[in-house]
Write a structure and sequence with these properties.
The protein is mostly helical and 120 residues long. The chain contains 5 helices and 2 strands; from the N terminus they run H-E-H-H-E-H-H. The longest helix has 25 residues. The protein is globular. The N and C termini lie far apart (43 Å). The model has no long low-confidence stretch (mean pLDDT 79).
């Protein structure tokens, strides 16, 4: 169980990095070229800071294994991180209360609406 949203996001980043590494091994075995680094998008700036910051703080001591793993992949050029704003975070439609315009925008991006919402 995560003790903060930053920790939860960081653990998700770690799991995704593991999957990316596994997929890259399969692609290499199939002789499919891949251009590195892969970009890992995250909407939590605290989690991105933990990934980029080489200094451990008392609040992040309990997630040190995930920290080392992601940081090692960043340093070896396998991965890079990027912030994605909440306006473009498709998962928010399932996890957060949204205003009508944001809900309609994300619904359209997910293909749940037939036509783009009309802006008043």
């Amino acid at each position: 169980m995560a003790k903060s949203t930053a920790e939860a996001e960081y653990r998700s980043m770690s799991a995704t990095t593991s999957e990316l590494e596994w997929i890259s091994y399969i692609l290499r075995d199939l002789h499919v070229p891949a251009s590195l680094p892969y970009t890992l998008h995250c909407d939590n700036k605290a989690a991105l800071y933990i990934a980029d910051n080489p200094v451990f703080h008392e609040k992040t001591k309990h997630i040190w294994i995930a920290c080392h793993y992601i940081r090692d992949r960043l340093l070896d050029g396998f991965l890079k991180t990027a912030h994605v704003s909440s306006q473009h975070q498709l998962a928010d439609i399932m996890t957060k209360p949204l205003g009508e315009s944001q809900h309609n925008s994300l619904s359209f991006k997910l293909g749940l609406l037939d036509a783009p919402p009309i802006l008043a």
